[in-house]
Amino acid sequence: MKERIRIAAGQGFWGDLPDAPVRQVEGGPIDYLMLDYLAEVTMSIMQKQKARDPNAGYARDFVPLMKQIMPACVDRNIKVVANAGGVNVEGCAAAVREVAREIGLSGKLKIGIATGDDILDRIDELITRGVELRNMDTEEPLSTVRDRIQSANAYLGAAPIVEALSKGAQVVITGRATDTGLTLGPMIHEFDWAADDWDKLAAGTIAGHIIECGAQCSGGNCQYEWQSIPDLANVGFPIAEAAPDGTFVITKHEGTGGRVNVPSVKEQLLYEMGDPHEYITPDCVADFTTIQLADAGADRVRVFGIKGRPATDSLKVSISYSSGFKAVGTLVYAWPDAYEKAKAADRILRARLDRLGLKFEHMLTEFVGANATHGPLAGEPSRDVAEVQLRVGVRGNDRKGIERFTKEIAPLILTGPPAVTGFAGGRPKVEEIVAYWPALIPKSEIQSRVAILEV
Q1: Which residues contact 251 (CB under 8 A, 6 or more apart)?
Q2: For the whole prediction, is pTM greater than 0.90?
Q3: Which of 216, 241, 330, 382 is the most exposed place for a label (fewest CB within 10 A)?
Q4: Contact residues for 130 (Cβ-Cβ < 8 A; gap 6+)
């Protein structure tokens, strides 16, 4: 058993810094590279892509990234764990295998595939058997939006990742695995933690939570003394140095920008936090109130004392469904009286929409630069404010009505208050709204599957 392992985060979301994973591999010693690509809306985007092209449905930029870093990973025995597979894990793995062969790695690594999370094809069967998949917020049964569902994926835990690693996989690709499981899995594998060692599983879960958003815990998006954080242009992504006893240190490569300290780690701990006593994952329930943090040197924070409890008998399911259409238009009004001009333009626009008989499910106006962020708490802006962006959005089920709205923004330039600028890109675009439906499903309904591809 190793005395410690270093798990480096290289991706906080699909679209994060493209070179961050490369810098994690090249910047110093690591044992694992963890890449988190999936958010709730990402699954529906990938499902749409797959509907248009059966070979799509995964994070496409993961493949050229792997082509770039795989030689170094093989040479240094760095394992990669990523949920880049989206809704087409097999397709993603096949593409990675193809580029691995292109660069001469045949016979030098194995690719693990973890599936079983996608239940889109099982929705009718589940509902028929009484698995209602009620909305966790509203208690409505899923049947109420059945005809509009785009994707449905259960959150898998660390178990299939552990299984793939135990079968010799150097690259593990999953679909909708939990963000935390991508880090916990390597810890369970390396330290042989028992399935009911709740304190250690909770510790690994919290390590995963801290590094899952990439540089958000190493200086990015950090409120505490943000002006003094050094060299964010060269920000270092976090690394969890984990020990068999469940303690770990959060750090980053030497010579990189950003900062790892107790405040930066605390901010990330609060991210997406509900009841701190019950951070529920497929693997355990972690108690965030037991977390102890200590300064362990420059850009090093020691995390210890974590307690956990048994996992629940359910898995969370992320379901997306179509919920109408929206469009957002903007105009910028310049000094003098920028705020007054923007308010007048909003009144004129609404009057014209009323004259046309257009009604929307919701219409929202924001005055960016005056009160869009803080609302009424912002107070009345100064008459000297240099510029205000009028931002108007509408949503509803009538696509034609929303298309008509998009034609009413540009005319305000010559038929409304003066000094408009910032109208670029043409008319606002009508976009489909993808809504989120969180639900629970009994664990007994989900069977993860692990396969190994030989390169």
Answers
A1: 238, 239, 241, 260, 299, 300, 301
A2: yes
A3: 382
A4: none
Note the pLDDT of residue 425. 72
Distance between CA atoms of residues 282 and 34, nearest Å:
18
Q: How far lies 344's CA from each of 304, 348, 367, 386, in Å?
A: 57, 6, 11, 17
Residue whose pair of structure tokens reads 């690719």 in the numeric block:
111
pLDDT band at 238 (very low <50, low <70, confident <90, very high): very high
Residue 272 in this model has a pLDDT that exceeds 90: no
Match domain 322-434 to its CATH number in 3.40.50.2300, 3.40.640.10, 2.60.15.10, 3.30.70.1150. 3.30.70.1150
d(CA 135, CA 144): 10
Residues of the chain with CATH 3.30.70.1150: 322-434
Cα distance between residue 28 and residue 241, in whole Å: 13
pLDDT digit string, tens, across residues 252-269: 999 999 999 999 999 999
Residue 379 pLDDT:
87
8 Å CB contact between 28 and 253: yes
Locate all alpha helices (DSSP H) within 134-289, ordered by sequence.
159-166, 181-191, 198-211, 262-269
